Amino acid sequence: MKTTTRRAAVLVAAGALGLGGLAVAAPALAGANPFGHPMVAASNPGPGWRGGDGTGPDINGGPDMRTGMGAMARDGSCLDPAVTAAKGTLTEQQKTTLAAMANEEKLAHDLYTAFAARFDAALFDRLATAETQHLTAVRTLLDRYGLTDPTAGKPAGQFSDPAVQATYDRLLAQGQAGQTAALQIGRQVEQTDINDLRAALDGLTAPDVQQVYNRLLAASQQHLTAFQRWSTR
């Protein structure tokens, strides 16, 4: 157990996690991500990758990420999380997906914060900071489109949807077995985000939502690579 004091983590979340109405309570299967979708190989993080120590530009800093995320701070946060693209039109399913994205960012943040309080790997603290920025961007979109924020009113680690709560509790318990296990959970969570974001971008026309999803996708690719490299140390 770490003795250093970690920053307080009070973000809010609840709602249906997973796109297209997919349930998330089922246990993860071998070769599947934490929400039951098939795992796919990690994507190339793009030409902006500069993380020679295995952490990547969104962890150690770096002047450029040409994958769409923009410059990143050393603590893992986006330097410019603003949504600058024009508003578009969303289908009802795309609105549901957008709300689910808030839950995914919240769940990742809360897991990484919990792991940061238990283990010495600085990666968890830095990625928790990044997830805070990601959730802020998604909330901006929810406000633009007049959608209810499913993450409102819930502190860290608490979700009103029983399926989301069960997924969080299961991943938290698995990750607390040790730092190696926590890093594995991080890889699973980021791969899930990658899969879901790719699916969400299919058929999407709203410029502002495309902008945010592409940024989140680039970040998750970087985060996944960071987890993979930390796991081989």
Can you walk through the features of this model?
The chain has 233 residues and is mainly α. It has a single domain (53-231), classed as Ferritin, core subunit, four-helix bundle (Ferritin). It is built from 6 helices and no strands. It has helices at residues 57-60, 92-118, 122-144, 162-175, 179-201, 207-231. Helix 2 (92-118) packs parallel to helix 4 and helix 4 packs antiparallel against helix 5. The radius of gyration is 16 Å and the shape is globular. The chain starts with 56 loop residues before the first helix and ends with a helix.
Count structural domains.
1
Sheet/helix structural class: mainly alpha
Please name the CATH architecture: Up-down Bundle
Q: Mean of the pLDDT scores?
A: 73
β-sheet strand percentage: under 5%
CATH H-tier superfamily:
Ferritin, core subunit, four-helix bundle
Number of alpha- plus pi-helical segments? 6
User: Which CATH class?
Assistant: Mainly Alpha
**Helix percentage range:** 40-55%
Largest sheet: none
Distance between the first and last residues' Cα? 20 Å
Coarse shape: globular
Uncertain spans? 3-79
Q: Total number of β-strand segments?
A: 0
Q: Compute the CA-based radius of gyration.
A: 16 Å
So what's the oligomer here?
Answer: single chain
For this structure, the CATH topology is Ferritin
Order of helices and strands: HHHHHH
